[in-house]
Design goal:
The chain has helices at residues 25-32, 51-59, 109-122, 136-156, 165-171, 195-202, 211-226, 256-272, 286-301, 308-338, 346-367, 375-419, 428-445, 453-463, 465-552, 567-571, 583-586; strands spanning 11-17, 20-23, 38-45, 78-84, 92-98, 125-131, 174-180, 187-188, 191-192, 230-234, 277-278, 282-283, 589-593, 600-603. By secondary structure, it is of the alpha/beta class. Helix 12 packs antiparallel against helix 13. The longest helix is centred in the last third of the chain and has 88 residues, at 465-552. The radius of gyration is 66 Å and the shape is rod-shaped. It binds guanosine-5'-triphosphate and magnesium ion (MG). Magnesium ion is lined by residues 51-52, 74-75, 97. It comes from Marmota marmota marmota.
Length: 604
């Protein structure tokens, strides 16, 4: 809607009725209608220091927030003006002008700081307006407000506070410190400095831990923690004349430096101020701001705020929790960069952990705030220990995974060979063991296996025990069979050799027998020749005898017979028989037996 970012002039948002804060319905209605994200700029500071004038400059108007012209404090409560953002289309610039602090007529410091705190809680840019210079009073005032603001924030946020460091960063408004009628020169030890350096220097802490130094440092530390982003602008006096009606003067009548400084300030606010954001990244729009206003004002009006000491504790808790988070995130970052899992040894990991842990603790110490009993540092230590355990487990797992992959890579071909039966042979077990040994050496030679290298190998070998046994049994079975075959072969060969030798012997015997036979035949032939010779001789003798006898007596017939002793003699052939005269008749008698012959010789 057109009206959502356009108001003709400011309206009162929170009225300050005798110390009681009242939220104005008219302002809430305006807010509830604005759906655009809001950049909220609030200004606070001592009364009559030109706050309203400055806000009008930001609205781009000469008139708007009422500018006082007398010593009487002018603005009351908190006034609001929503205008279109001059640099961010679709955004609304919400200007909050506040009642001045330290009004002597009012004399209520508590009410002052409540308004101050509300402004800081509602804004995304918090302009702290002071006169002339940064002094201890201005620092103390800002510090008090930060304490109260912290209490309010802790009480009104869910879960009793902001736990996330990023959220804290978003939730805190940026501080812009404006110094009006700045008459000093920005110089230190003869060196020129910027306004920001001046602010930085004013908030610098002293070294030491004595009570005085602590009192000096505490407000500065609180301001630094409370406002992580800080900027400072110094303004010259707007004019050399008496300035009771500054807004009526033309630009030409104003100090040129002042006009320029105002332009720089406005440009910074328009370009750098962030959208008001709540924890969880919620961008504040009209209804959301309306809600915040009601919540904070109710909290203040309940008058049940804890004392200042508790506020410091709350701050300490939040700051230290954030410091722990920062330290842990630094540790994670370092370990992420340095650790290459799996580490070769556990010691390597422990060394990296220790150096990162040392740095993380340093970061914590730098960012911690009033961790007097070191309870937060102990908590950090516990969390770092847990992280170490976790990393050790991750490292073990990385090593196991790496070793498993490596084992599979190296031993895979052996497993395949076993499957294909290449080791299912006599002696296969030995070959399998040899190959395993060879592969183990190869495995050991591989670098960066991590701390699980041996365990993973042993586990693998154990898991392959059954395979090894199977190879062994197959080997035994096949060896026994082979032995049997070998024995049978040896037996067969022996039998064959025996048979062959029997054949040889038989042949030899046969040869001998044949030789004997040949000799025998030869002898027989010899004998036959001899016998034939003898017979021929006998025949001749007989013939001669017969002749003689014939001559002497009448002729008689003589039979000569030859007797055969055995069958072999028969085989020698039919012996010729000759009729001889009977022995008795003719006087023939056995004469002798030749030893080499079975032939019985009968001598006539
Ligand atoms: N010396 C001086 N006077 C200024 C400056 N800016 C504005 N003034 C004048 O100071 C007077 C008070 O101005 P305001 O803007 O009403 O001051 P304020 O801080 O809002 O005052 P309260 O609302 O009463 O707290 C006016 O007369 C302005 O013209 C400045 O930079 N220097
Ligand atoms: Mg004013």
């Amino acid at each position: 809607m057109a009206s959502e970012t356009y108001m003709p002039g400011p309206v009162c948002l929170i009225e300050n009725m005798e110390g009681q804060l009242v939220v104005k319905q008219e302002a809430l209605q305006i807010l509830s209608a604005i759906t655009q994200p809001m950049v909220v700029v609030a200004i606070v500071g001592v009364c009559s220091t030109g706050k309203s004038y400055l806000m009008n400059q930001l609205a781009g108007k000469k008139k708007g927030f009422s500018v006082g012209s007398t010593v009487q404090s002018h603005t009351k409560g908190i006034w609001m003006w929503c205008v279109p953002h001059p640099e961010k289309p679709g955004h609304t610039l919400v200007l909050l002008d506040t009642e001045g602090l330290g009004d002597v007529e009012k004399g209520d410091d508590k009410n002052d700081t409540q308004i101050f705190a509300l402004a800081s809680l509602l804004s995304s840019t918090f302009v702290y307006n002071t006169m002339n210079k940064i002094d201890q009073g201005a620092i103390d005032l800002l510090h008090n407000v930060t304490e109260l603001t912290d209490i309010l924030r802790a009480r009104t946020l869910p879960d009793n506070g902001v736990k996330d460091a990023d959220d804290i960063g978003n939730f805190f408004p940026d501080l812009v410190w404006t110094i009006r009628d700045f008459y000093l020169s920005l110089e230190r030890d003869g060196q020129l400095m910027t306004a920001d350096e001046y602010l930085q220097n004013s908030l610098k802490m002293k070294k030491g831990s004595d009570q005085r130094t602590q009192s000096f440092n505490l407000p500065r530390l609180c301001i630094q923690k409370f406002f992580p982003t800080r900027k400072c602008f110094v303004f010259d006096s707007p004019t050399h004349q008496k300035i009771s009606q500054l807004e009526t003067l033309k630009e030409d009548d104003l100090n040129f430096q002042f006009v320029q400084q105002m332009a720089e300030f406005s440009s910074h606010i328009f370009n750098k101020s962030k959208i008001k954001t709540l924890p969880g990244g919620i961008k504040v729009n009209g209804p959301c701001l309306e809600n915040l206003v009601l919540t904070y004002v109710n909290a203040i009006n309940s008058r049940d705020l804890p004392c200042m000491e508790n506020a410091v504790m709350t701050l300490a808790q939040r700051e230290n929790a954030a410091a722990i988070k920062r330290a842990l995130s630094h540790y994670d970052q370092l370990m992420g960069q340095k650790v290459q899992m799996p580490t070769e040894t556990l010691q390597e990991l422990i060394d990296l952990h220790r150096s990162s842990e040392g740095e993380a603790i340093e970061i914590f110490k730098k960012n911690s705030f009033k961790d007097e009993d070191q309870s937060f540092q102990k908590e950090l230590q516990t969390l770092l220990d847990a992280k170490q355990n976790d990393i050790c487990k991750q490292n073990e797992k990385a090593s196991s995974d790496c070793c498993s992959a490596l084992l599979q890579d190296i031993f895979g071909p052996l497993e395949e060979a076993v499957k294909q039966g290449l080791y299912s042979k006599p002696g296969g077990h030995n070959l399998y063991l040899q190959k395993t040994k060879e592969l183990m050496t190869k495995y050991h030679q591989q670098p960066r296996k991590g701390i699980q290298a041996e365990e993973a190998l042993q586990k693998y070998l154990k898991s392959k025990e059954s395979v090894r046994n199977a190879v062994l049994q197959t080997d035994h079975a096949l060896t026994a069979k082979e032995k049997e075959i070998e024995e049978a072969r040896v037996k067969a060969e022996a039998a064959k050799a025996e048979a062959e030798s029997a054949v040889v012997i038989h042949r030899q015997m046969q040869q001998m027998m044949e030789e004997k036979e040949r000799l025998h035949q030869q002898q027989i032939r010899q004998m036959e020749i001899e016998i034939a010779n003898i017979l021929a001789q006998q025949h001749r003798n007989l013939a001669h005898l017969l002749q003689v006898l014939n001559q002497l007596f009448q002729p008689r017939v003589v039979f000569l017979s030859f007797l055969y002793k055995d069958e072999s003699m028969k085989q020698c052939g039919e012996m010729k028989s000759t009729r001889v005269a009977r022995g008795r008749d003719c006087g023939i008698r056995p004469w002798g037996v030749h030893p080499s012959s079975t032939v019985t010789k009968y001598m006539v």
